[in-house]
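Sanity check

After download, print the first record. It should look like this:
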Amino acid sequence: MLTLKVINENTQEVIKRLATKQFDAKDAVDQVIELDETRRKSQTELDNILSEVNSISKSIGILIKEGKKDEASAAKEKVSALKETANLTETTLKETAKLTETTLKECEVKIENILVTIPNLPHESVPEGKGAEDNIVDRTGGEMPLLHKNAVPHWDLAKKYNLIDFELGVKITGAGFPVYKGKGARLQRALINFFLDNARDAGFEEVQPPYVVNSDSGFGTGQLPDKEGQMYHVGIDDLYLIPTSEVPVTNMYRDVILEEKELPIKNTAYSACFRREAGSYGKDVRGLNRLHQFDKVEIVCIEKPENSYERLDEMVNYVQTLVDKLELPWRILRLCGGDISFTSALTFDFEVYSAAQERWLEVSSVSNFESFQANRLKCRYRDENRKTQLCHTLNGSALALPRIMAALLENNQTEEGIKIPQVLVPYCGFDIID
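Expected structure tokens:
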């Protein structure tokens, strides 16, 4: 959530930069500024009146003690006049203060209700563009596989080698909830352990978070208000199934004031992820391409503002090492304004090439949210001068499993079977699926 300070001090810049995200912020920004001016003016006027009333009331007591009845009577008349000005004729100061506090809170609620609809400001390096077709390829790597003439997509391989049962998942739950079996389940577990071990080696502390969160947590990282209805809601308990472990891990630092020496904080977590994916259809959702439940290892960083973009580069380079080790062809996209998320300031997407489908599949997003999430979370740190500042938050998929699995199966298929990348053999215990 943007701060009032940023909006008040950089009004035109805020409107201009949000236009890069295809968001017309003028009306919302104008409303926030107007409400904030009214709130501050009312607060100042009330404070001044109450201050004068309190000052005169104290002087009356002194005058009475000194026997100056005429001066005390004059002071009382002035207090009465001030009370009338402040609309205190029929209520006590205490009651009016409470009433004013309620009014101010209502104003603050209105401001916050508008602020939560305003996206994060895109970083200056975010390219112009309306959608995915305008994203910029930042860099590429890996070798494109040459498949044999009878090569098939991963959903056919999954059936041939009894790795994943999509129909059984439909029977148990519904579409988008596959059942991994045999070597498919072992390969899935191998990938999870491989990603976690690499993250720990890179300095990320592993945590195991809950898979459901409360509404405060959903709000803190920007999933709530959930305008698209993409989160699964457990109505009876008012809890939400997590769309990514970013949500519970980042919320570990909600309402926390860290010491500067504690930063950066680097966490990694494995979790199942749940997304309704409302509106998804067509070839893009076949097989493992788009699921309602999937596994993912996440990396999360809490950082000082001046170091957050250096940390972002480090995280992007780390994810690159993973796809390199898996011997997958990859490319990194710098997302344009029209494709970047509501909460992100700058995002890099990783895609791997799916040879049998002849298309690129997104497997990771690595983002810097700057202070946008931290302002919602009230995640702060004390600097060397003991001044409290908002942290910057970052996160990335490292990695999401379904499309990695799809690319591994497709790209490594041979006439004899599916070869396992060398780095995974110690984790899964076999070097070929046949």
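If your output differs, re-run the checksum step. Summary of this record's structure: The first helix runs from residue 4 to 9.
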